[in-house]
């Protein structure tokens, strides 16, 4: 059976180093029929062209919806999948997403997005209401599951880990370019769900999202600018919220964001002057968003897909134990990764430190922590275990995520 053709679209702006890391991980995806499209500013365009195998589209406009539409317009896959440039996918990410589209009723799908430590869940299954407020959906399963609407809440996806049928994106005229940043993917997936398209949550379609610095936040996630966040909230309210409820939606949004800014000020990450400047931005940005509602949304991408060539899989999977000589194992891991293979290194020590998972700049996965510490944040803070037991536990968790049958020996899957 021919694999579903998928186009992976990555938008980059002012983060060339993060893009390089993302592209290295995408090159290790275990899926036979996909293409990579990078829509980037000049610095990112240079990095993407150096990668040599991604299709690159120049875009020096600070508008993520417009950039994503440019990617969709040139995409050749039946499905378009999206990653942020500060994210890295697990090797089986696309394979897990692709299988749910065998059901023609599935319009869109998303997976589990992990935070900076590579363990804690940043985004899972979710729904959104007409005000743009998100709610976690209860999906305690490791198997794909349909997320149904509940009351006035419909399923939503997160832009750093989502896949949609391209034909339905075209039907909806793509991303609304009045959303320059924030709620852009929420608006599109909300429209698709409201039109009757089914949304699937795929737990083992895993992406690691580092939340890198940008013009909107610094490396510690302290806000730099909130103008576009407020403008997008106004556009969302104007498009989807009943007229009688819009004023309440505006007040609720501004109060929540004001508390968020003041918490940063209380922690000392924002000065009082900067905090009050951001609070003023909330009002001016929201007013600008209301003005954007008078602008007709763009017609979006129109190009027809033509199909993707099947690529041979040449990677091997290596799982290496660095409990004895970590330096030597890391050198070996880098050498394997430079040859194009997928590599995982376990550096577990005899302590109770929490586990972390990192995709290194050298192109391999690094697991660190204590054999007595917790990996899943639901585990006890301390538990007796042997080194072999902890490694085996991680290997079991990675089954279907990083490879089909991970083992602590060099092997080919």
Automatic annotation (TrEMBL):
This is Glycosyltransferase. PANTHER family: GLYCOSYLTRANSFERASE, SLR2126 PROTEIN. It comes from the Bacteria. Gene3D superfamilies: Spore Coat Polysaccharide Biosynthesis Protein SpsA, Chain A.
């Amino acid at each position: 059976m021919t694999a579903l053709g998928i186009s992976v679209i990555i938008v980059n702006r002012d983060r060339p180093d993060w893009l390089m890391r993302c592209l290295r991980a995408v090159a290790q995806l275990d899926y036979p029929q996909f293409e990579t499209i990078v829509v980037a500013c000049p610095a990112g365009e240079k990095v993407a062209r150096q990668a040599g195998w991604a299709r690159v589209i120049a875009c020096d406009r600070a508008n993520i919806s417009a950039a994503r539409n440019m990617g969709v317009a040139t995409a050749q896959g039946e499905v378009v999948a999206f990653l942020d440039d500060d994210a890295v996918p697990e090797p089986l990410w696309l394979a897990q997403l692709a299988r749910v589209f065998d059901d023609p009723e599935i319009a869109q799908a998303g997976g589990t997005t992990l935070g900076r430590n590579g363990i804690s869940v940043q985004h899972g299954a979710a729904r959104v209401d007409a005000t743009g407020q998100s709610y976690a959906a209860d999906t305690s399963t490791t198997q794909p599951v349909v997320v149904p609407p509940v009351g006035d809440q419909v399923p939503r996806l997160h832009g750093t880990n989502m896949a949609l049928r391209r034909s339905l994106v075209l039907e909806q005229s793509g991303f609304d370019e009045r959303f320059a940043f924030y709620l852009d993917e929420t608006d599109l997936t909300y429209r698709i769900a409201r039109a009757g398209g089914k949304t699937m949550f795929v737990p083992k379609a895993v992406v690691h999202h580092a939340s890198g610095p940008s013009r909107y936040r610094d490396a510690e996630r302290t806000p730099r600018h909130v103008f576009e966040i407020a403008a997008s909230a106004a556009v969302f309210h104007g498009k989807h919220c009943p007229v009688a409820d819009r004023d309440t939606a505006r007040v609720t949004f501004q109060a929540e964001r004001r508390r968020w800014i003041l918490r940063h000020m209380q922690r000392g990450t924002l000065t009082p002057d900067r905090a009050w400047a951001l609070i003023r931005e909330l009002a001016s940005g929201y007013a600008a968003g209301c003005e954007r509602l008078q602008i007709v949304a763009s017609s979006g991408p129109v190009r027809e897909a033509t199909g993707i060539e099947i690529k041979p899989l040449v990677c091997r999977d290596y799982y290496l134990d660095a409990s004895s000589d970590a330096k030597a194992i890391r050198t070996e891991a880098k050498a394997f990764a430079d040859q194009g293979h997928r590599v995982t290194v376990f550096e577990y020590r005899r302590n109770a430190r929490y586990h972390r998972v990192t995709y290194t700049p050298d192109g391999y996965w690094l697991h660190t922590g204590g054999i007595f510490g917790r990996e899943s944040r639901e585990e006890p803070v301390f538990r007796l275990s042997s080194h072999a037991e902890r490694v085996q536990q991680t290997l079991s968790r990675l089954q279907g995520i990083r490879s089909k049958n991970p083992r602590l020996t060099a092997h080919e899957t």
